[in-house]
Write a structure and sequence with these properties.
The chain has 250 residues and is α/β, with parallel strands linked by helices. Helix content is 46%, strand content 14%. Helix 6 (191-198) packs across helix 7. 46% of the residues are buried. GO terms for molecular function: oxidoreductase activity.
Length: 250
Amino acid sequence: MGFDFNDTRVVVAGGSRGIGRAIALAFAAAGARVSVCARGAQTLDALRQDAAAKGWELHVASCDLGDKTAIDGYIRDAAQALGGLDVLVNCASAFGRGDDESGWGMSMNVDLMGTVRACHASLPYLRESSRAAIINLTSIAQFHPSVRTAPYAAVKAAVSHYTSSLALRLAGDGIRVNAVAPGSVEFPGGVWDDARRDNPTLYQNILAGIPFGRFGAPDDIAEPVLFLASPQARWITGQTLAVDGGQLLS
């Protein structure tokens, strides 16, 4: 069964590269009207041009998802451009690695508070929709201790917990809130693409721990996101779905 998102208005916060980009294009391919924000104007313009080449018109805007004022303004402008809002997908990550002020600050401000602020800004529009859904991107790093990326893992766990809390709060409004926790996903310019080149030992160790024998691709994550946003998932809320090729099992 294919997804039909005709007349559905979708915001992808943090969607110019990798997983977010794949999600935005998948929604557009399914007929949705899509707005995408990110910090980089160049990658946003490339996304818009790639979509236009396939006949899809995307609304794009630069936005620092660590800045509340910028988020509020972007969500307002996106809802105006789309004629409302039905689905919010939060994808942005600062990928704070070091267990220091910088690592924690980036992760808290973008991964956690960027998600919280985008949800808050979107609620007035989502409450006017009959098919409202929020999908937050977390990570399977949230499920186990991480020496290498302690802030990232802890903050993604916080996003997952917030997802369930918000789902309970918004159930009475008919707004579903779920999360997708990707495993290790490789794409050009991403963390694992860099590791393949700069840290091949780590790359091979992670690859060896994925039972399916390959890193994930952005499209592997995009389609579950579309499912959770679709009417087929109408009785699902407050859940975090691991999409990892069995990586958590190893």
